[in-house]
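Re: the multi-chain job from yesterday

Posting the exact lines I submitted so nobody has to dig through the queue logs.
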Amino acid sequence: MRRPLRYAALILIVAVVLYPLVWMVGTSFKSPEEIVNNIGLIPQHVTPGNFTEGWHKFDVGFGRFFLNSAMVSLLTVTGNVVSCLLAAYALGRLRFRLRGVWFAAMIATLLLPGHVLIIPQYILFRNLGWVGGDWPYLPLLVPHFLATEAFFVFLMVQFMRGIPRELDEAAIIDGASPYRIFRHVILPLSRPALVTTAIFSFIWTWNDFFRQLVYLSDLKDYTVPVALTLFIDSTSESAVGPMFAMSLLSLVPVFLFFVAFQRLLVEGINTSGLKG
Amino acid sequence: MHTPARTEPPAPRGPAATRRGPGRVRRRENLPGYLFLSPWLLGLTAITAVPMLLSLYLSFTDYDVLTPLSEARWVGWANYERMFTSDPSYWHAVRVTVTFALIAVPLKLAAALGVALLLNRAFRGVGLFRGLFYLPSLLGGSVALAIVWVSMFNRDGAFNSLLALFGIQGAPWVNDPKWALETLMLLAIWQFGAPMVIFLAGLKQVPAELYEAASVDGAGAWRRFAHITLPMLSPVIFFNLVLETIHGFQGFTSAFVLSNGTGGPVDSTLMYTLNLYINGFVRLDMGYASAMAWVFLLAIGLITVVLFRTGRFWVHYSDSEGH
Amino acid sequence: MSRTTTPRGDARPTRAHRTPPPAAHTSRRRLLAAALTVPLLLGAAACGDDSSGGGKTELSVFWWGAEARAGLTDQALDLYARKHPGVTFKKTWQANQGYFDKLATLTAGGNAPDIFQIDDNYIAEYATRNVTLDLMPYKNDGRLDVSKFPESLWQYGVVDGKLAGVAFGENTQGLVFDKTLLDKHKLPAPTTGMSWDAFIAWAENVSRTTKVPGTQDPSADYKAFWVWLRQQGKDLYKGKELGFTEQDAAAWFELWKGARERGATPTADVIHEGNVTDVSKQLVVTGKAATSWVWANQMPELKKNTADELGVVAYPGDPSAQWARASMYFSVFRGSPHKDVAVDVINFLANDPEAGKILGTDRGLPSNLDVRKQVADSVTDPAMKQSIAVEAELVTEFGPPPVVPLPGHSEVKTELTKAAEEVQYGRQTPAAAATAFHAAAKAAIGQG
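And the result, structure tokens for all chains:
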């Protein structure tokens, strides 16, 4: 396609796709009365009030929620990347007894709707003594260090299957152990898988609402998604403006995370090669 | 539960990619295998399996959440029987979900592929454009998103203003049982960022020589797309298809936030998992909800297997034998 | 999750502390049940017991609401803590989204908060499953004082003869209208006691004159349906059964079908918008209808979102069908290790003048009439003044309260909305929708 045409098409699509978001930005600069009465894109009176009000609305500043979310997200990323990589290497590259059974079990854990697991898991974690301690994030984080997010295991298995077998075989002939192969062949070539896992686990954790709501009980421990729901109590008060303002701010870290890593992601997959 | 939709399926590689060359070295790796698997095994047995089996057990009981678990009353197959014989809303939700998945999944993949094709060149600002197209997916299933969507798609919303420019009189979309599900589909399609990224990755893999050779042969843009891009991309299409299908059937969050947790108007957006949630947490009938979850697992597992089977006929793996 | 110091070796009847079914049961499923629950329960025995050794008592308190309520509740609890050294609070609050999901999850884990807020949609669910402590003995020996409460108000917390929760705030149905709009067109305001037919005729007239639909269609609104039923000598629930027949429901749907046909209400999609929206976007606020059906204490929040002046009267028909409804309750978890202290805290919050002054009208009019008077005198918000005035006027006419909604009530509400909307969208006749609704409601409350 010719260049100007491409730009025109892209800009048109971007305009349509981003309209709802732009509307959100416009609304976040409206006063409370205007939010109800002016559904248009442009505020009649631009006011930053929603941002300051939202940031300071609760006894704990929104900065604290950002820090909590960042901590939970980064630790989740670490846990997922490390533990899923180990499991994926076993399931994707090693041959051992019952491997097929374990792989099927892993896929099965992906398919059960999560709602019916909430209560059994809560009971389990409570009995393990993880709930309500001084550091309430244990039940949110420990599972990620044990590769319970089957999605990422599956993802990395698929990536690893793309790494040419000949590399292992050459290494085996050279007398390398599976551990050496992991360290010197698989690990370096798994960068795209790791980056993808990092991006997706960061974004999902940043947006995860209910699990964080269940396990966090002190305002100062709340994360961004939990704090965002505090603005709207449908039976009494709803502060839509500040909620929009804080929602937009909460997009900034994930957006930056994505833009910074997308290059790595796309290039990364390229180097791993879909060639096979 | 109210977790944001998992819009991001992973990247590439088909099952056939596991096929190995004939000359591979065979050896048993039991010890290292289990060593590497041990964190996952520990997680499976200690964290995942117990709640899963417990939910399987609960699916045979009358468990109302508030009564102690150990007092849940065994009811045999009653929950399953009820689902299949005497709960019309169950089948209604199944229909809604299947309709949703059948329409939204292909359209979302088409949108993702189309935009990926536009973005698959190096030009100024391409990174920014990718980021912008990914933005809607970052919003996940937040309350803010629900408010925005409802504002866009009610009677006096922006979408109808747009239609009015073309002289079309719009419907009250989100508030109309005839159109609410379509509005929900549009939301799913709008969040096409994740499959787009994966398509982009896949497009990068298509060797440029193939296009050059085709151009020499005088093939037009459409023929190049149909004969080179599509087949070369099929493993990635396949993966996006499998994961978006699973995700489409599991769709909960957007239906939940858009309808205020009711699946309304008049059950028009009552997705399977939303119905399950309502039964489990609103009606406190967790035994029944658990039975629904296990039927879902079997059904979706079956669909996944079928997808894998059909994939053999149209997914083109460049590393398969005889190619 | 709520106690930092956990009890040890105490036989309190917390949920997960139950011993698993005896192994003597030979049937396979029993074994399965035991096998599954044993590992879950093992941990429970390990995390042990009461903490009151050091004279320190920590109570967990859980409520939903917005930030304003959080601030007030914080202050009131701090006041208690100041007066009772040794008692501290672990306070958790959130908006209503997900509140009951979390409460149910905590309860299932045997870890419900010592004190939690609940409303009449769920109180019977929790009370009939013995999650809430029966406060009747405390009331009888005076440790819980409800003597200054209107009789009907505290009784609205009684489920199966047990006092399941203490009403925090009285409330009643309120019909809110856009006074500015009516004045502009020189139209009369609706009045308390006008008949339903007169009201619909009034709304029709408003639609015609102002081009703004006269009233939101309340046929999907259980509280309007309920008041209307009581005026017909029926009720939503009687004993453990539904208090109305299929014909009653059909007549109700028919009444509003007629109103819609006369143009007294907005179109079905706008009605639906009003049905699902939160309080700040009621149609009377967004200008899509001249009247909305709300709770009287929601006036201030409505007022905040519109420049127009609002008025409030009772729902149409005989106002004695309305009652002093507890807008919400505080309940005590039956498995709490500090039951007596928890009850004392609730007693303090309900009756202490200073605490009452802090809490104000945030949860509704204070239950304690002395506190109410004191608070009412000091209220400055004009919208709040209005709702207090209406409540004060109606209180003289209130009839006895109905039974607290039965377990399954939230599903009954959902089914009513569904049936009413089927009629509104013209997809079902009133009779057909009424049949479906009646059957579904019966099933929801487990009536044979």
